[in-house]
Design a protein that fits this description.
It contains six helices and seven strands; from the N terminus they run αβαβααββαβαββ. By secondary structure, the protein is α/β, with parallel strands linked by helices. The chain binds S-adenosylmethionine.
């Protein structure tokens, strides 16, 4: 019997710049001058807010083939579905958001900020395509972020999708990628994490799990850092 949030599809839910800073332990001042890619950015406002602060960010998502009106029509129903389901679940910690109403305010702020920016910058800041392929040059980005797509949807996205996506993300990233969270909606460590870090096809990459002080989905207080260069052999 599942205890966590049950979703039959990847939902359109967006986070804010502030939440990304906490998820990925980012130092905004250190991002200046870096080319940042937000993969599966959806209706999050990281890209819009980053540009407002003078940062260089590109957002990528399969929904950016849709018009503003088509995306807008999905925002509130997906948000209602999640906020209504989440309140009583044992798999969430409420220290940060305090209540479902405050969580809803964060998500609404994110998607409204996103929609205003998408209206102006679709096709330039907001680029479409579908993982496990990315429409970017080798090493185009210094830092790539992936929030709430890989690992957490392990019941819908298979191991091959994760492996190919990580390869492709690192093809377009010359610095490092960070992926968050590392648990499924059941708040359990994703079963792909260990095989991925020992996958012979990814031996050109180095993996590190970094602990943070942010936890909403239980046990989600860490992200995966991926860099070029192989990991030292385990003792
Ligand atoms: C839960 S949302 C996360 C949005 C954002 N990263 C955040 O944390 O606020 C997941 C996003 O993944 C996108 N997505 C799902 N499958 C994808 C794929 N194969 N390629 C690109 N984007 C995908 C969905 O369209 C959706 O916008």
């Amino acid at each position: 019997m599942k205890q966590g949030l049950v979703l039959d599809k990847v939902v359109l839910l967006g986070r804010t710049f502030e939440e990304y800073v906490r998820y990925f332990a980012l130092d905004p001042a250190a991002l200046r001058g870096q080319a940042i890619l937000d993969v599966a950015a959806g209706v999050g406002s990281f890209c819009a807010e980053a540009h407002a602060q003078g940062l260089n960010s590109t957002a990528f998502d399969l929904i950016y083939e849709l018009s503003l009106e088509e995306i807008e029509a999905r925002c509130q129903p997906d948000l209602d579905q999640v906020v209504n389901a989440i309140g009583g679940l044992p798999t969430y910690r409420w220290e940060f958001y305090k209540s479902p109403a405050e969580l809803r305010r964060y998500r609404e702020r994110a998607y409204k900020t996103f929609l205003a920016d998408y209206r102006l910058h679709r096709g330039t800041r907001y680029l479409t395509g579908k993982l496990p392929r990315l429409p970017f040059r080798d090493g185009q980005f210094d830092l790539t972020l992936v929030s709430y797509l890989l690992f957490v949807y392990e019941d819908q996205l298979d191991y091959a999708f994760h492996q190919q996506s990580v390869r492709e993300i690192m093809r377009v990233t010359k610095g490092e990628a960070r992926v968050y969270p590392l648990v499924s909606f059941e708040a359990k460590r994703c079963s792909y994490l260990d095989p991925l870090q020992h996958d012979p096809d990814l031996r050109h990459l180095r993996f590190e799990e970094v602990t943070t002080d942010f936890e909403f989905l239980a046990n989600s207080n860490s992200f995966l850092r991926i860099q070029h260069g192989s990991s030292p052999p385990s003792p």
